[in-house]
Amino acid sequence: LFSQASQGERALDCLQQAEKIAYASDDMVGLSNHQCKLALLMAKHSPASSGADGQRALEKLRLSLEACKKLGVNAGVAEATLVHGQIAGLQNNQAVALQKIKVSIDLFRDMGDKGNVARALCLAAKNGGVTAQGVVQLQEALEIYRAMQDSLGESDALQQTAELESALGQNDRAAKNWIDCLAVKRAIGDIKVSSA
Predict the structure, then answer these.
(1) CA-CA to 46 of 20 to 30 Å: which in 147, 157, 174, 182?
(2) pLDDT tens across 41-59, in order?
(3) What is the pLDDT of residue 50?
(4) pLDDT for 83-117, tens place per residue?
(5) How far apart (Å, rounded) are the C-alpha atoms in residues 130 and 124?
(6) Cα(first)–Cα(last) distance of the chain, in Å?
(7) Separation of alpha carbons 10 and 142, rounded Å
(8) Alpha-carbon dihedral sign for residues 105, 109, 111, 113
(9) In terms of Cα–Cα distance, which of 142, 127, 135 is closest to 84?
(10) 62 against 44, higher pLDDT
């Protein structure tokens, strides 16, 4: 919640406390989970994410990934790989970002984790720039969200698709997806967005 409110320092403090508690209670799965989230937060809220702070974020991520591999937590390995892609994207290294995100998509697919496949597809489209491939990825994510009846995911995918289609000059398609997006957002009570 602090992260969403752009209160990075408070968000980091909460996760660092959670990390210490997990370590003290010998909760290695919890510890690796907190370290993964901490790595992404450090990269997001650091003013120089590619410098020393960026290296600290990657070190946290390395610890999380190693623990997940050692413990055999495949979901943790997939999530850490996805986070690595997100951090690379924040550091403007799109080639690494896309490579890591694509690996995470394969890992989530292997586990049958459709929700995270859709989330990773949206991140791939975001990091891929203004391309037709991004629209394809978003359409796949949209189908998954609809099949899962995940209205929040559906509205986010529709919004991202509309924005990308608009950037590609596909105005008619963009307009249709904006209308569909607003309808979903109104249905789930996202008044702030639907009234904008």
Answers:
(1) 157
(2) 998 876 554 567 778 889 9
(3) 54
(4) 999 999 998 999 999 999 999 999 999 999 999 99
(5) 11
(6) 22
(7) 33
(8) positive
(9) 127
(10) 62
3-class SS string, the chain? CCCCCCCHHHHHHHHHHHHHHHHHCCCHHHHHHHHHHHHHHHHHHCCCCCCHHHHHHHHHHHHHHHHHHHHCCHHHHHHHHHHHHHHHHHCCCHHHHHHHHHHHHHHHHHHCCHHHHHHHHHHHHHHCCCCHHHHHHHHHHHHHHHHHCCHHHHHHHHHHHHHHHHHCCCHHHHHHHHHHHHHHHHHCCCHHHHCC
Q: What amino acid is encoded at 24 in this protein? A: A
Tokens representing 64 are 């999380």
CA torsion angle for 183, 181, 120, 93 (degrees, to 10)? -150
Q: CA 163 to CA 169: how far, in whole Å?
A: 10
Pair 57, 87: CB distance under 8 Å: yes
Q: Is the distance from CB of 145 to CB of 118 less than 8 angstroms?
A: yes
